[in-house]
């Protein structure tokens, strides 16, 4: 009798085995949780408080990757500075690039800002295009769909659960997008300056003009000459808003604001990035609130 | 028959109710028409898009020159350059004859093996060509060609497995052993320009770099635990060097954990067991500890230490010798870093001085991720020239660039 019980326990534990999903950034983790529900166990590698380009490839991240069944990466080169050495050391063919378990979210997105010519003379550019599509909530459903399809392939037993969750999520998200669109349309037509080209997807969708960046080239710290140019441009074009990410220094933005009378708005770029952005909805709601305040 | 009657009665009742609902229906109809019009417009838009896409596809078909194009299979290629300007209180011909008492000897017959910053004045240390490529689903290939002005050297060339299960990875070829912390790291990624004294004394200027095979296993635990084993030829003639057959074996265990969200730790224990030139046993033991605190995205404080202990059997008896370094590096931001290192050797021989030590300090400026300039000062009390012990003061300014497709460095 006991043997049968043990066998039963073993079988159920095997049937209920969760898919280990690892995502590079928190917003991808939130999507994976929404689609995977109880059928997956989600872990996120990068701390949302840090610059997504410069995550330290801590050895403590290796065991997480080495036991993953699926890895969801942002892609478009955003992880190029830290994920490859971790992946190499994790020795896990299940999530190797090109395998069933590797998901590149950027493949569902039509990337913008693809550079016409590629050279490091232009700073830290991404030849594939701008990788910061997480700031536009319209990019969430395509990623959710991709994750649902990948999960259905990996774990066909729970295919209907994944597809149902996707359907629910899509309905809810589309309703949320209506609110979001209404909110942002109310502040349409503004011109802004940003630190890095972090919000381009959002700005482009809502026809908000990004006039300049505080950094002279991607990944290059602002020089005084460039700062003066930004101030001039802002004065000429009557720009009153500076979008600041939470991880770069804020002194330069404050200085420019003091010279131009503009307002500095700290806009999160990922879930959990600043206080009160612990879910996808609160994250995008914070973006909308702060952008239109 | 009954069906017909029911249908008729439905129709009749519908007409009756229709009168009162006519207005409502009219508005609904208008709404439906609007929706249909909008949908039609979308369909038309999509159709035009599709036609233009297929037109573009047809246009692509007309360029058959790329049919057998293999450009996308080219390996990642990187060029690494390092050069320096050196000021030193010892002239060049004297400096070439240095040795570390109890560890190395100077042989005037042989060419000096000082790999970096040999001359007072200008040095061009090396140009390094690094390549990486995936060779099918099962292997990756890597090669590093180290080019001196008058020497070509295959520093590393090896294949690595891609598809082994259970957290295993195998490597074969010529490669830098992962003994200790710094041995497998190339000079361009070091925090200080010079190799730690303990490594120079025990493994020589090239470190432990040999032909052989490696197997590494990441244990299925929550904390990072990695066990590695290497079988090498043993051609390192400073501690080993008996190459009648392959007889150097290296094993190590590495562990890493986060202490807090921003503080991480990596530690390792290593052993190298082989035969020296006299055919007797040499064992080298290593212990390392790295502690890194991230202050923000661009700023961190790292403390790194390593201890090497060598037990070398010779015809004159057992030599138990050791050396360590400890260093503190502060990355102020993406552009600036500074650090200090202290090193000491214990040669455990009675006839000569035992206070062999060196202190270094450095200031690093990185205009961009792939280029750096480093100003380094070192006060070195570990060298002997002929019969004379002389302390070396050295100031050095060097540059390092990484051009092309160079993979990111590990922790």
Give the SSE map:
The complex is a heterodimer of chains A (293) and B (411).
Chain A: H1 2-15, E1 19-23, H2 26-36, E2 40-44, H3 62-66, E3 70-73, H4 83-90, E4 102-104, H5 140-154, H6 159-185, E5 191-194, H7 200-205, E6 209-213, H8 224-237, E7 241-244, H9 251-260, E8 263-266, H10 280-291
Parallel strand pairs in A: 1-2, 1-3, 3-4, 5-6, 5-7, 7-8
Chain B: H1 2-61, E1 76-88, H2 92-95, E2 98-99, E3 121-135, E4 139-148, E5 151-161, E6 168-176, H3 197-203, E7 209-218, E8 224-232, E9 248-260, E10 263-275, E11 281-294, E12 300-314, E13 317-331, E14 336-346, E15 356-368, E16 371-380, E17 384-385, E18 388-389, E19 392-404
Antiparallel strand pairs in B: 1-3, 1-19, 2-17, 3-4, 4-5, 5-6, 6-7, 7-8, 8-9, 9-10, 10-11, 11-12, 12-13, 13-14, 14-15, 15-16, 16-19, 17-18
Question: Outline of this structure?
Answer:
The complex is a heterodimer of chains A (293) and B (411). Chain A has 293 residues and is of the alpha/beta class.
């Amino acid at each position: 009798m006991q043997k049968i019980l043990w066998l039963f326990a073993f079988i159920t534990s095997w049937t209920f085995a969760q898919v280990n999903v690892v995502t590079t950034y928190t917003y991808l983790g939130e999507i994976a949780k929404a689609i995977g529900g109880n059928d997956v166990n989600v872990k996120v590698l990068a701390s949302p408080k840090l610059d997504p380009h410069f995550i330290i490839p801590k050895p403590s991240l290796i065991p997480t990757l080495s036991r993953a069944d699926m890895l969801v990466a942002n892609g478009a080169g955003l992880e190029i500075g830290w994920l490859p050495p971790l992946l190499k050391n994790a020795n896990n063919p299940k999530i190797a690039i090109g395998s069933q378990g590797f998901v590149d979210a950027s493949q569902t997105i039509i990337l913008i800002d693809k550079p016409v010519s590629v050279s490091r003379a232009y700073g830290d550019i991404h030849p594939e295009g701008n990788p910061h599509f997480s700031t536009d909530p319209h990019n969430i459903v395509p990623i959710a769909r991709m994750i649902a399809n990948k999960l259905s392939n990996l774990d066909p037993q729970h295919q209907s659960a994944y597809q149902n969750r996707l359907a629910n999520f899509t309905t809810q998200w589309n309703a949320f997008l209506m609110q979001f669109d209404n909110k942002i349309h109310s502040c349409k037509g503004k011109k802004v300056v940003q630190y890095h080209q972090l919000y381009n997807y959002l700005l482009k969708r809502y026809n908000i003009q990004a006039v300049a960046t505080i950094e002279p080239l991607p990944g290059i710290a602002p020089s005084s000459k460039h700062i003066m140019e930004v101030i001039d441009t802002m004065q000429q074009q009557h720009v009153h808003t500076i979008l600041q990410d939470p991880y770069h220094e804020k002194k330069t933005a404050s200085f420019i604001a003091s010279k131009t009378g503009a307002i500095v708005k700290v806009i999160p770029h990922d879930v959990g990035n600043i206080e009160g952005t612990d879910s996808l909805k609160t994250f995008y709601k914070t973006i909308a609130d702060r952008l239109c305040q | 028959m009954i069906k017909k009657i029911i249908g008729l009665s439905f129709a009749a009742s519908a007409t009756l109710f229709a009168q009162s609902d006519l207005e409502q229906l009219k508005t609904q109809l208008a709404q439906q028409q609007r929706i249909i019009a909008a949908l039609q417009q979308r369909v038309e838009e999509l159709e035009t898009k599709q036609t233009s896409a297929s037109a573009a596809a047809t246009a692509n078909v007309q360029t058959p020159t790329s049919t057998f194009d293999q450009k996308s299979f080219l390996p990642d290629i990187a060029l690494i350059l390092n050069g320096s300007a050196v000021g030193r209180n010892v002239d060049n011909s004297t400096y070439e004859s240095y040795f570390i008492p109890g560890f190395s000897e100077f042989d005037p017959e042989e060419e000096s093996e000082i790999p970096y910053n040999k001359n007072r004045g200008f040095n061009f240390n090396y140009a390094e060509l690094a390549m990486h490529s995936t060779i099918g689903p099962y292997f990756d290939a890597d090669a590093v060609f180290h080019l001196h002005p008058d020497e070509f050297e295959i520093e590393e060339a090896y294949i690595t497995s891609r598809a082994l299960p259970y957290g295993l990875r195998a490597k074969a070829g010529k490669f830098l052993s992962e003994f200790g912390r710094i041995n497998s790291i190339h000079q361009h990624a070091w925090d200080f320009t010079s190799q730690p004294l303990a490594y120079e004394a025990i493994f020589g200027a090239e470190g432990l770099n040999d032909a052989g095979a490696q197997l590494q296993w990441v244990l299925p635990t929550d904390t990072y635990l990695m066990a590695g084993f290497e079988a090498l030829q043993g051609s390192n003639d400073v501690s080993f060097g008996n190459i009648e057959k392959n007889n150097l074996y290296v094993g190590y265990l590495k562990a890493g954990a986060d202490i807090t969200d921003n503080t991480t730790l990596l530690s390792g224990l290593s052993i190298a067991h082989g035969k020296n030139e006299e055919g007797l046993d040499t064992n080298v033991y290593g212990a390392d500890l790295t502690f890194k605190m991230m202050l923000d995205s661009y700023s961190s404080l790292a403390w790194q230490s390593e201890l090497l202990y060598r037990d070398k059997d010779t015809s004159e008896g057992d030599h138990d010798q050791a050396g360590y370094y400890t260093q503190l590096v502060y990355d102020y931001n993406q552009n600036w870093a500074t650090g200090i290192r202290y090193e000491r050797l214990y040669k455990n021989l009675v006839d000569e001085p035992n206070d062999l030590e060196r202190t270094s300090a450095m200031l690093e400026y990185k205009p961009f991720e792939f280029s750096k300039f480093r100003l380094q000062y070192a006060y070195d009390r570990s060298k002997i020239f002929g019969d004379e012990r002389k302390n070396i003061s050295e100031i050095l300014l060097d540059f390092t660039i990484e051009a092309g497709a160079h993979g990111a460095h590990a922790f």
